[in-house]
Amino acid sequence: MIDLHSHSNASDGALSPTELVKYAREKGLVAIAITDHDTVEGVEEALTAGKEFALEVVPGIEISAEFPEETMHILGYYMDSKDQKFIDNISVLQKARAERNPRIVKNLQKLGLNIEYDEILKEAGSGQVGRPHFAKVLLNKGYVKTTQQAFNRYLKKGAPGYEDKFRFQPEAAISHILSAGGLPVLAHPATLRCKTEDDLETEIKKLISYGLKGIEAYYSDHTNSQTEVYIKLADKYGLFITGGSDFHGHNVKGIDLGTGKGKLDVPYEFLQKMKESR
Length: 278
Ligand SMILES: [Zn+2]
Ligand SMILES: [Zn+2]
Fold this sequence. Notes:
This protein has 278 residues and is α/β, with parallel strands linked by helices. The protein has helices spanning 17-26, 43-52, 84-110, 117-124, 131-140, 147-155, 170-179, 197-210, 224-237, 268-276; strands spanning 2-3, 31-34, 56-65, 72-77, 183-186, 214-219, 240-244. A hairpin with a 6-residue loop joins strand 3 (56-65) and strand 4 (72-77). Helix 4 (117-124) packs across helix 5 and helix 5 (131-140) crosses helix 6 (147-155). One zinc ion is lined by residues 5, 7, 35, 62, 246.
């Protein structure tokens, strides 16, 4: 079993890259990809840990792309994580994140919540600050009963605490990954929330024209019928298939590395095919 979608505390995961690799090994996985949001800061440490614990580690990233109303994430695999141009390109996104977080605090304060940015920074520790940290603080302070409730009431798109942030257009996200020698993959196509299969196919054709190489067909939140549709489209357009859990450690409850919500099972063959397409 493998897992091609996981987050470390270089973004909003709970485990350090080394802990993540160690945990994958304990779970009996043979390969994982580290795909932190908008950063490759955890990649070197994960690669080193991979050697130490004899686990295949795939360098990766997950870039948020502009997609009106809904969520489009583009995964990238096998970029040269030391490529300075790539690092410069994505640093724009980290800056956008950093500017967004204090604005979320202001929104929450305006709603009458007693919350300070320092509390969020403390919760995040050394990693990138993200909405899961806000959710945790809201939970700890008793404003919500679960972190999910924190997202629903305050933090998700459209909720009163939400702040939008700069994102790349899909074309730019894909082109940055390609320029650094990486393979761009559409993450969890279900979050595009396309109304029909034809709409989804239209979006995927656009992404292919920018250079998309794969689709994340296996994912914790995909139903069997969704997965089937994504595989069908991948076959039709000669894209490879990937799969992963979107593991964040205890920051996102109910999703485990490798098995996702219990039924996920991504075969090594997927990684083999991805590597052959390089
Ligand atoms: Zn995602
Ligand atoms: Zn993710």
